[in-house]
Design goal:
Radius of gyration of chain A: 25 Å
Number of helices of chain A: 15
CATH architecture of the largest domain in chain A: Orthogonal Bundle
Largest sheet of chain B: 2 strands, antiparallel
CATH topology of the largest domain in chain A: MetI-like fold
Oligomer: heterodimer
Shape of chain A: flat
Strand content of chain B: under 5%
Number of domains of chain A: 2
Distance between the termini of chain A: 28 Å
CATH topology of the largest domain in chain B: MetI-like fold
Shape of chain B: flat
Strand order of the largest sheet of chain B: 1-2
CATH superfamily of the largest domain in chain B: MetI-like
Largest sheet of chain A: none
Number of strands of chain A: 0
Radius of gyration of chain B: 29 Å
Order of helices and strands of chain A: HHHHHHHHHHHHHHH
Helix content of chain A: over 70%
Largest interface: A-B, 108 and 113 residues
Distance between the termini of chain B: 25 Å
CATH architecture of the largest domain in chain B: Orthogonal Bundle
Number of domains of chain B: 2
Structural class of chain B: mainly alpha
Number of helices of chain B: 13
Strand content of chain A: under 5%
Number of strands of chain B: 2
Chain lengths: ~290, ~325
C-alpha cells in the first residue's frame, strides 16, 4: 500500500536510518504516554501508604503489597458496586436491543405509513447535545407523565432513556436496508410472519451490526458518569464511577488506586477481547452517524 | 410494498383470469385483500415500533418540550411552578459566574481543539507510515478511551499532585522545578485539557487512520512524479483527501468539548478561583445545588442554541456522505 513516503525512499540506506529513528522515537513516546501511566497506577496500588506519600515518588515499589487489591475490594464493597454497574450496563444493553432492533426492522423492511416521519423525528434528537436534555429528562424521570412513577434509584432510570437511542436505530436500519427484500418476500411466501422473519432470518445475518451496537451500549453505560450521578442518590445503588468519585477524598490513596484499577479491568478486558468490533463501531459511530 | 409480479397481475386481471389453479377473483375482492394485508402490515410495524415510540416520547420528545417550558418557569419541587417569563435568563445574566463559565468553556474548547485536533492527526499520519508494531500502536492509543472517565480523572489528579505526584517527581528527578498544575488558576484549565486529550485522542486517531487508509496510492505516486516533496504531498494529497473527515471530527469535537463536565467536577470542582467552572458545571450547580431547575433549564436552552448549529451541520454532513 503506497502512502505518503514512497517504498523506494524507505529502501534507500538513508531512508532505512530515518525510518529506524522515527520508529524508535514513536515507540518510546507511545510507551511513555500510554503504557507508563498504566504501569504507574498498577504499581502505585501495591505501594505502602507511606511510600505513596513520599516525595519524590519511587519508580519501583520498595515493598510490594498486592494484598491492597483484596483490601480495596472489601473496604470499598467493590462486589456490590460491580453488581450495580453490571445490572445498569447489562439492562441498558438488553433494553437497547429489545427496543431498537424491532423498531429499525419495522422502519427498514415493513415501511409503515408515516415511517419516514417517525424516523425523522428520531434522527432529529441526534441534533441535541446530550447534556441539553439533562435537566428536563431528570425532571421527567422523577415523575413519569401519565404513569406517575419515580424512577430515581431504580436502574430503569438508566435502561429506558438509553433505549431512546436514535443512533442505534440509524445504524441498524442502514444494515437492514442492505438485506435484499427478496429474502423477506421468500420468507413470507413460506408463511413466516414479520416477527418470525426478524427472529429467524434477519437476526442471524445481522450478527456484525448487533455486535457493534451491543459493545457500544455496554461501553457507554459503563463509562457514563453524569447521568448515574443524578439518578442514584442512594449510595448503595450507585455505579462504580459514582462511588469512586464519592469516596475519593476519604479513602487512603493506595486503596483508592487499587479500586480504580479493579474498576477499569472489565473494560480493558472487553477491549482486548473485542478489539475488531470496537474499532468497527468507532468508525461507524463517527463518520456515518 | 407490493412486488412487481403481483402488481402486473392486478393490471391485467382479465387477460389471465385463472393462472396455475388459482380461483378467479373479482378486482374489488382482490383490492380488499390487498388493503387488509396493508393494514395488517402497518399494524405489525407499529406493534414492533411501539416500545421505541414510548421511550422516545418519554425520554426525548417530551423532555425537549418540557425543557423549553421549564426555562420560563420557577421550579423547585416544593412550590407549584410559576411563570416567570425571561426571569431565569435575567438571573443567569446577572450571575457573575455565568460569563466566567462561558469564557472557561470556550477556552477549554479552543485549547482542546489545538491539542485534540492537531495531535491525533499528526499521530495518524505518522502511524500510517510505520510498517511495524501497527497493532501495538493502535492498542496503546485506544486503551485510555476504554478507561472509565472518572478513573482517568482521579488518576491524573494524583499524577498532578504537587507533592508525591508523578509529574513533579519526574521534573524533580530531571532537576527542573515542579508546576502547580491544578492548584493554580493559570494552569488548571490547561491541565484539564491535557487529561481530556490523553483520554480521547485514541478514537480520533484511529478514525483518521482509517481515512488515511482509503487514499489511493496513485495520488501520492503522481504527485511525486510531478516533483512534489513530502510537505507538498501532505498539503496537496493527504489534506484534501481527508478534508471531509477532518471537518466532521472538528464539529464533533466542538460539540463534545463544550459539554465538558467530568474532568472539572472530579478534579477541581470548578476551582481554583472559579478558573475551571464550565457551563455544564454551573448548570449542575443551578439544578442540583441551588435547586433552581428553571434557571438550569434556561442554561440548557442557551447551550443547545449555541451547539444546535454545529449539531445540525454535523448531521447534514454525515447524511450527505451517506448518500454519496
Amino acid at each position: 500500500m503506497r502512502t505518503l513516503v514512497s517504498p523506494g525512499a524507505l529502501r534507500s540506506p538513508r531512508g532505512k536510518v530515518v525510518y529506524g529513528v522515527v520508529f524508535a522515537g514513536t515507540l518510546a513516546v507511545f510507551l511513555l504516554a500510554f503504557m507508563f501511566p498504566l504501569y504507574w497506577v498498577v504499581t502505585g496500588a501495591m505501594k505502602s501508604p507511606q511510600e505513596l506519600a513520599q516525595t519524590p515518588a519511587t519508580l519501583v515499589p520498595h515493598e510490594w503489597h498486592p494484598e491492597t487489591f483484596a483490601d480495596a475490594w472489601d473496604q470499598l464493597s467493590l462486589g456490590k458496586y460491580f453488581l450495580n454497574t453490571l445490572v445498569v450496563a447489562g439492562g441498558a444493553w438488553l433494553a437497547q436491543l429489545a427496543i431498537d432492533v424491532p423498531a429499525a426492522f419495522a422502519l427498514s423492511k415493513l415501511r409503515p405509513k408515516f415511517g419516514n416521519v417517525v424516523l425523522g423525528l428520531m434522527l432529529a434528537t441526534l441534533m441535541l447535545p446530550a447534556t441539553a436534555l439533562l435537566v428536563p429528562t431528570y425532571v421527567t424521570v422523577t415523575d413519569l407523565p401519565l404513569l406517575h412513577l419515580n424512577l430515581i434509584n431504580s436502574p430503569a432510570a438508566v435502561w429506558l432513556p438509553a433505549a431512546a437511542n436514535a443512533f442505534n436505530i440509524y445504524l441498524l436500519k442502514r444494515f437492514f436496508d442492505q438485506i435484499p427484500d427478496e429474502l423477506i418476500e421468500a420468507a413470507r411466501l413460506d408463511g413466516a410472519g414479520p416477527v418470525r422473519t426478524l427472529w429467524r432470518i434477519i437476526l442471524p445475518i445481522s450478527r456484525p451490526i448487533l455486535a457493534v451496537v451491543s459493545i457500544l451500549a455496554v461501553v457507554t453505560a459503563w463509562k457514563d458518569f453524569i447521568w448515574p450521578l443524578l439518578v442514584f442518590p442512594d449510595t448503595g445503588k450507585q455505579t462504580l464511577s459514582v462511588m469512586l468519585q464519592r469516596v475519593a477524598i476519604d479513602m487512603p490513596l493506595n486503596v483508592l488506586v487499587a479500586g480504580m484499577v479493579l474498576a477499569s479491568l472489565p473494560m480493558v478486558a472487553l477491549f482486548l477481547a473485542f478489539q475488531r468490533q470496537i474499532l468497527a463501531g468507532l468508525t461507524a459511530g463517527s463518520l456515518k452517524g | 410494498m407490493s412486488s412487481p409480479r403481483s402488481s402486473s397481475l392486478l393490471a391485467w386481471p382479465a387477460a389471465k383470469p385463472s393462472r396455475a389453479g388459482r380461483p378467479a377473483v373479482s378486482p374489488e375482492e382482490r383490492r380488499r385483500t390487498r388493503l387488509k394485508r396493508k393494514l395488517k402490515e402497518n399494524l405489525t410495524a407499529y406493534g414492533l415500533l411501539c416500545a421505541a415510540l414510548v421511550v422516545f416520547a418519554l425520554f426525548s420528545w417530551y423532555p425537549i418540550v418540557r425543557g423549553v417550558l421549564l426555562s420560563f418557569q420557577q421550579v423547585d419541587f416544593v412550590n407549584a411552578p410559576t411563570w416567570v417569563g425571561f426571569g431565569n435568563f435575567t438571573r443567569l445574566f446577572e450571575d457573575p459566574l455565568f460569563g466566567v463559565a462561558w469564557r472557561n468553556t470556550l477556552l477549554f474548547t479552543g485549547l482542546a481543539l489545538v491539542f485534540g485536533f492537531a495531535v491525533p492527526f499528526l499521530t495518524a499520519v505518522l502511524l500510517n507510515e510505520l510498517r511495524h508494531a501497527k497493532a501495538f500502536f493502535r492498542l496503546a492509543v485506544y486503551l485510555p478511551v476504554m478507561l472509565p472517565p472518572v478513573v482517568t480523572a482521579l488518576m491524573w489528579k494524583w499524577f498532578y499532585d504537587p507533592g508525591p505526584g508523578l509529574f513533579n517527581s519526574a521534573l524533580g528527578a530531571a532537576g527542573l522545578p515542579g508546576g502547580q498544575w491544578l492548584d493554580s488558576s493559570t494552569t488548571a484549565m490547561l491541565s484539564l485539557v491535557f487529561v481530556s486529550t490523553w483520554a480521547n485522542m485514541g478514537s480520533t486517531t484511529l478514525i483518521y487512520l482509517a481515512a488515511l487508509g482509503t487514499i489511493p496510492g496513485e495520488l501520492y505516486e503522481a504527485a511525486e512524479l510531478d516533483g512534489a516533496g513530502l510537505w507538498k504531498r501532505l498539503r496537496h494529497v493527504t489534506f484534501p483527501q481527508t478534508r471531509f473527515v477532518l471537518l466532521v471530527l472538528l464539529l464533533l469535537q466542538i460539540v463534545a468539548t463544550m459539554q465538558v463536565f467530568t474532568e472539572p467536577y472530579v478534579m477541581t470542582g470548578g476551582g481554583p478561583d472559579d478558573s475551571t467552572v464550565t457551563v455544564l458545571l454551573l448548570l449542575y450547580r443551578y439544578a442540583f445545588v441551588y435547586n433552581d431547575f428553571g434557571s438550569a433549564s434556561a442554561m440548557s436552552l442557551l447551550l443547545f442554541v449555541a451547539l444546535g448549529v454545529f449539531s445540525a451541520w454535523y448531521v447534514r454532513l454525515t447524511r450527505k456522505a451517506d448518500q454519496s
